[in-house]
Amino acid sequence: MTIVRRWQPALRPFRRITPAGELLAFTERVIKGPLFGCRMCGNCLLQETAFICCMECPKGLRNGPCGGVTPEKRCYVDETRKCVWYAIYKRAQKKGREKTLLEILPPLDWSKAGTETWADVFRQVRKTGTGRFIGSLFSGNEVRKNLIWDSVFKTIRQPEWWKGDSDYHPPAYSEPASDLERSLREGKFVVATEVTPPISADSGKLIRDINLVKPYVTAINFTDASSANPKMSALACCKVATDNNAEPVYQIAARDTTRTGLQANVIGAGQFGIKNILCVTGDNPIIGPAPTSDMNIVDLDSVQMLWILRRMRDEGIYLDGRKMKFPPKFFLGAATTPFASDPGLQAIKDQKKVNAGAQFFQTNLIFEPDRLDDWLEQLDKRDVLNKVYIMIGLVPLKSYKAALYLHNKVPGVYLPANILQRIEKAGEGAPEEGVRIALELIDKIKGKKGISGIHLMTLGWEEIVGRIITESGF
Length: 474
Ligand code: SF4
Ligand code: SF4
Hints:
Elements: H1 19-36, H2 84-94, H3 118-128, H4 130-137, H5 142-157, H6 179-185, E1 190-194, H7 204-213, E2 219-222, H8 234-243, E3 248-253, H9 259-271, E4 276-280, H10 302-315, E5 331-336, H11 343-356, E6 360-365, H12 372-381, E7 389-394, H13 400-409, H14 417-426, H15 430-446, E8 453-456, H16 464-471
Parallel strand pairs: 1-2, 1-8, 2-3, 3-4, 4-5, 5-6, 6-7, 7-8
Bound molecules: iron/sulfur cluster (SF4) (2 copies).
């Protein structure tokens, strides 16, 4: 319970509802609003989220924290408040309910938004036994209590069309879907890079950059309007890459994607020969250019995207349950920010992504490789390391200004003081110093157990890829 917590305005129903439904919704709103910050999403998850309403998260995330939690555990969208997911994780751990955080939770059924959830709860309580349920409220036996509560609430939070669980689902195919997957399976230390999508309709530089980096890397990522800044779409860039015989990684940001668009786009991507898909929730529009678009609720989060896409590929079904005759084939990835919260909490979210369908991770930018050890150890404890390939995100810093921008403006990226000092001191020699730092980082990362490769993000400095790869001795 979070009395007098600040909350966003409650949602209203899209359709007219009965007077009895209105009355129940009103009662629920005036009780759950002040107690839990309830926004009347109509798809309640409170029992799963340690009785802290996850809909307070400005992104409306329903499956754990994003990578933008500040070092003070505050929300990067609004630093006046704590990250609600950090609070949920902490409380769940305190109450011994950490395991429940692994259950893959569904996106909203928007037809229920603004309506009450209590009628369903009452129905389920009657089915379970009203006496048993009330008795459980006062029971000191946590195991029994959780069982009874699950029998009431699980049917509500896991509708038929979703049926999320906490289990790992290995990919249901044998031949690698892409060259990236093949190389990783063969145990090669893989290098992927990023080519910056153009900010105009001309693809000349894009083609030049693709051809420049292609000989040195296994795959090329194309971001989906990174930093909430519009550029050429990732899908179009990937098509240009396949036309130029390069293997793309198609990044899809939940921020700009509805569930309908996601499913339609990945089927279309298959037609263009795009075989690697990376699901990210995406930066909040608050860090993008003005005027700021809706910062509020996203239709999906990255975990839900992975769950939907894995089922499309392995079970041949759309989210609505329709069967498809020829399911698409792709290698599924996700982003991760190892230092976003503490390594133990981050590993919970990462395990959830792997269970949902992530086969490879590309991390956010890393400048302190030694700090990776704790995170890798936590993943190992969770038996995740042998289920996912990890590629570490690195950037060659070109200037002090770029270093400061990354440190101050990009959610989840922090540069240690010694690296900032080295780049500042280098002055005009900053690009050389940046390359030296990148090579040192690669050297430290190469030998680490559980690391399968690097993901070189050049931020528009594509010319440097060849030199770094050559000098790092790959
Ligand atoms: S999960 Fe939805 S219904 Fe439950 S408290 Fe939060 S906003 Fe209200
Ligand atoms: S930091 Fe991310 S997960 Fe946490 S409340 Fe803010 S948007 Fe939500």
